[in-house]
Amino acid sequence: FDNKGSGSFNDEMVIVRNIRVVSNCAHHFIVTDVRVDVAYVADKKMIGISKINKIVKRLARNPTSQETLG
C-alpha cells in the first residue's frame, strides 16, 4: 500500500508470528525445520502479511547454516 495520501503511518509494529521455515543446513547437510516471527514498523510503504511469508520462504530456499537463521 502506498502512503502518499494520509501523511504517515502510526508507529504501530506489524508482527507475523509462527511462520514455518524448512531449509537445508549448508554445514551439516540436514533439514532444519524452524518457526520464525517477523516484526517491522512501516515507514513509507506497507506490505501485506502474505508478502512477509513469501519473503521468509524465499530467503530459506538457499542452503544456510543454522546459526544464521536465528
Number of strands: 2
Rg, please? 15 Å
- Number of H- or I-type helical stretches: 2
Query: What integer is the average pLDDT?
Result: 79
Helix content: 10-25%
Largest sheet: 2 strands, antiparallel
Basic shape: elongated
Which key phrases capture this entry?
21% helix, 2 helices, single chain, elongated, 70 residues, alpha+beta
Can you put this structure into words, describing what you see?
The protein has 70 residues and is of the alpha+beta class. Strand 1 (13-24) and strand 2 (31-41) form a beta hairpin. Helices cover 21% and strands 33% of the residues. The protein has helices at residues 49-59, 66-69, and strands at 13-24, 31-41. It has a two-stranded antiparallel sheet with strand order 1-2. The model has no long low-confidence stretch (mean pLDDT 79).
Concise account of the structure shown:
The chain is of the alpha+beta class.
Helices, strands, pairings?
Elements: E1 13-24, E2 31-41, H1 49-59, H2 66-69
Antiparallel strand pairs: 1-2
